[in-house]
## 1
Amino acid sequence: MGYDIERFVGYVNEGLLCSICRDVLEDPLQAPCEHAFCTACIHGWLVHHSNCPEDRQMIDVSLLRPLYRYMKNDLNRLQLHCKNSEYGCEMVCSLESIDRHERECEYSQIPCSNAGCTVQIERRNLDGHLAVCEYRSRECPNGCGYTILSAEDTQHNCVAELRTELELLRSEMICRVEEAKHEMESRLDSQRRHMVQKESILQNEIEELKSQMSRMMSDVRSLMAAERQHRQELEQAELEKREL
């Protein structure tokens, strides 16, 4: 749907009106036959039709194009009243800047930000409403620290709330202790497995060293036996030499 033509100041050229809703073009598109439409209007039309609503020429969504630059400029220069004029806003600005103004307009009707409150209020009055809204959040006047979120909460039981809070804290503490316990057990188990693995490696290294030492001792004994044999042979040779 387009912009209500009654909002505009002065004459609006016929070529700037949507051929479907007959209001001033909003987010316009143009067909090859040069008829212009609001994007929402022409898309809705082409769901059930395949021709231009003005001259019945065949058109398709893929054939739609943005408005000619000069027409777009003429459209943006049009002056219109803020949509909140019925609430007292007297702003008149160009179509090009109307959206920016209306997003910030002090007369805009906006919802209260407090959960549960259904009041719609002008932006300029929002702060005053929030200060007295029955759904506003505030701390319990009895000092228990409970945050009152609605009118029904004003009758809350401080002792019950504190007991509930204590139970929650206790449960949270138990959970944290259990988590810390599981984490510590996991670390100890990991370290235990690492130590067992390390012990096994060291044991294998010790056995290998023992085996090497045993081979070395055997080699030493063989060398000593060979040395004795060699000495005996030398002594025998010396003896025979003397006899000769």
## 2
Amino acid sequence: MEKGNGCCFSIMASSATITFFLIGINLFMCRVLYAMYRSSKPLRKRAPQPVSTLIVLGSGGHTAEMLNLLSVLQKDRFSPRIYIAAATDNMSLQKARLFENSLADETGVRAVKTAQFMQIYRSREVGQSYITSVWTTLLAIAHALQLMIKIRPQVILCNGPGTCIPLCAIAFLFKVLGIRWSSIFYVESIARVKRLSLSGLLLYKLRIADELFVQWPQLQRKYPRAHYVGCL
């Protein structure tokens, strides 16, 4: 009889564990759907206060386009600015430092007070085998998580480099978990005329980006949730 009672108790405990697990999964999925829903809606207007801004830089023209975009933004609105680039991309951070120094010359405010510069491990180098890239990708994700916990930006600006994917994915996870609601703005490169880049396509299809901007009208017709803004 005692053996039967123990068996029933074990079955009930297992059933309760499965029930709690399923409830947890359902709650998590509801949060995911809510984050995707909110990210696809127009942003709420807020008081004009400075917002900490993470700016993702990349080689191959991405940095030049991003700095052109930053040149027309309200610098005091998007402050402090945290620039981040791949660990092997020193040129992009040098350009960002020159840009911030030029702003300091105009405003008289030292760049160290308004800007930070960081590097992140790259998921995959050009020509790297896919087998070895598994380990480097995991390392890049872990590093991105560490940086995002430290930075927790209110705004993320990116325009194509693959470095932005783990950062944006972690920012979206933070939304789901209620840690930080970061507004993600993705500006597709002007070089993309007929279709989105892989980074843009992932952020568009998964509804991770709050706003996705394209610079060619045919792209907006192909991806109707994108916003056509002309050549920036």
